[in-house]
Specification:
InterPro entries: TAP42/TAP46-like_sf, TAP46-like. The chain is an all-alpha fold and 402 residues long. Among the domains are: 209 residues, TAP42-like family (Serine Threonine Protein Phosphatase 5, Tetratricopeptide repeat, Alpha Horseshoe); 47 residues, no CATH class. It has 16 helices and no strands.
């Protein structure tokens, strides 16, 4: 049933489905069934392209329509998916993938899409020096980054145009400049596909070099195994290692139920001491910050057993005073001081708002009367004294005529 559906699908639908699978596999990885399905779809695309005769050897990129440009990527996508197939004969997979990459590069070369420096490097082959290969890789990396940036810019431009078209359609129902928008979309789509092909060419050259190296390495290993007859022995060693690893993981999982995780190290100084071998993790509760010791590495790294070694390690000391406590200890001390200050303030506010401070003492009626009489007598005596001593009577010697 699935094969019948694939047979009935159009070329564009096949390509879009295969492109989605390729994107999923390259970005996040997928199972082998999805990879095989993508390879089948791309192979079907190749058959349909050859039957329809979409491309000709005497054409260039300008002669290909915008709708058919994307089908140039079919061999590249097929090469990348084929490389991800997991089979015992890895060398055969590498050869098939390399053949598809070479087919893609040669076709792009015929369409005048491959940069001139890549063509010159491929003609020279292994005669390139290390500096030339490095310069070529740097130039290829820059082209790849530029293509990725351009694709991002085109995508953002499309999203902005889509939002503006929706807003204009909601605000004004009049259709103005619709043909211009369609033309802009066609030019933009062509630019996007050409940029995607340029990016694929960069990736194809890198992948081709990597696959060649992998094939050479696997071929050398296979020849060595065939010569020495150690194929079965190597497989036995691998099986033994696998069994040991599985047993270790089983024992670790069994022990994890009865073991407690170690407490994290919060003091940076103690962590540095543990790394450099001056302390153990089990001494975390006994650790106290000690000033850093400067001196010969042979004495600092080891344990200072005698006073002579300690004095020798303290020869090169800094001119400034070293800290006497760690940042964690200083923070804890500040927290303690703040708690004490808050407790003292709370106690002062409580005393200020207490009843005995606010309420005045209540006096009896007899005491009030006595106070009033004493105040009146004092006021009368003061009035009499002011009558006997008028203002300025004692300052006659200070006057000019006195």
């Amino acid at each position: 049933m699935g094969e019948r559906k694939v047979e009935d699908m159009s070329l564009s639908a096949l390509f879009e489905q295969a492109r989605k699978i390729h994107l999923t596999v390259t970005e996040s990885g997928a199972d082998q069934d999805l990879v095989k399905k993508g390879c089948e779809l791309l192979e079907k695309c190749e058959d349909m392209i050859s039957k329809l005769g979409l491309f000709s050897s005497n054409e260039t990129k300008d002669d290909i329509s915008t709708n058919n440009l994307k089908y140039l990527l079919v061999p590249f996508y097929l090469a990348e998916l084929t490389e991800k197939l997991a089979q015992e004969e890895r060398i055969q997979i590498l050869k098939i993938s390399q053949a598809k990459l070479k087919e893609f590069i040669s076709f792009c070369e015929a369409m005048e899409l491959v940069p001139q420096e890549e063509l010159e490097a491929s003609v020279q082959g292994a005669s390139n020096s290390f500096a030339d290969r490095r310069a070529l890789k740097i130039a290829r990396f820059r082209r790849q980054r530029a293509a990725e940036a351009k694709l991002t810019e085109i995508k953002e431009r499309k999203e902005r145009r889509g939002r503006s078209i929706k807003a204009a359609a909601l605000s004004t129902p009049v259709e103005v400049g619709e043909d211009d928008l369609l033309d802009d979309d066609g030019e933009e789509e062509r630019e996007a596909w050409l940029t995607t092909i340029s990016l694929a060419i960069c990736k194809a050259f890198d992948l081709l070099e990597m696959l060649k190296k992998e094939e050479e390495m696997l071929s050398a290993i296979k020849e060595k195994q065939l010569k020495e007859g150690e194929k079965e022995f190597s497989q036995a060693i691998l099986d033994d290692r696998t069994k040991k690893a599985e047993a270790w993981h089983r024992d670790a999982a069994a022990r994890a139920r009865y073991t407690q995780p170690a407490a994290p190290i919060t003091c940076a100084t103690f962590a540095q001491d543990v790394i450099e071998g001056r302390a153990n993790v089990s001494q975390a509760h006994e650790h106290k910050h000690q000033p850093m010791i400067f001196g010969p590495q042979s004495l600092i790294g080891g344990s200072l057993t005698s006073e002579r070694e300690r004095m020798a390690a303290q020869v090169f000391q800094p001119a400034y005073r070293m800290p006497t406590m760690s940042i964690e200890e200083a923070g804890l001390r500040e927290m303690e001081m703040m708690n004490k200050w808050q407790e003292r303030n709370a106690k002062m506010f409580e005393e200020a708002n207490s009843a005995w401070y606010k309420d005045k003492p209540k006096m009896g009626p007899s005491e009030d009367d006595e106070d009033d009489d004493a105040a009146q007598e004092k006021a009368r005596a003061w009035d009499d004294w002011k009558d006997d001593n008028p203002r300025g009577a004692g300052n006659k010697k200070l006057t000019p005529c006195g």
